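Cross-check.
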Amino acid sequence: MQLTAPDTSRTGVRDADGMAVASFILGLLGLLVLNVFLGPVAIVLAAVALWRGTARRGRAYLGLTLGIADLVVLVAFMQADSTISWSF
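Predicted model, tokenized:
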């Protein structure tokens, strides 16, 4: 009978790996739609994944870069339209 909780160190790394992949996907999706929401979420997920020591550092850095690119695209479209939001 086991009275202690199982070792969760591998679970933490798997969670960080999932965050890295999620940040990449959300950053990529944010270039197309909802970049005002998906960009910051991608940045936060990538930063947390890197802080937790993900094995997928490349995906986390891509998610971080794409999240920043989402916000740059948003600012560029806002400047072009001279509005707070952008539309086609």
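The first helix runs from residue 9 to 30. DSSP finds three helices and no strands in the chain. Passed to J.P. for a second look.
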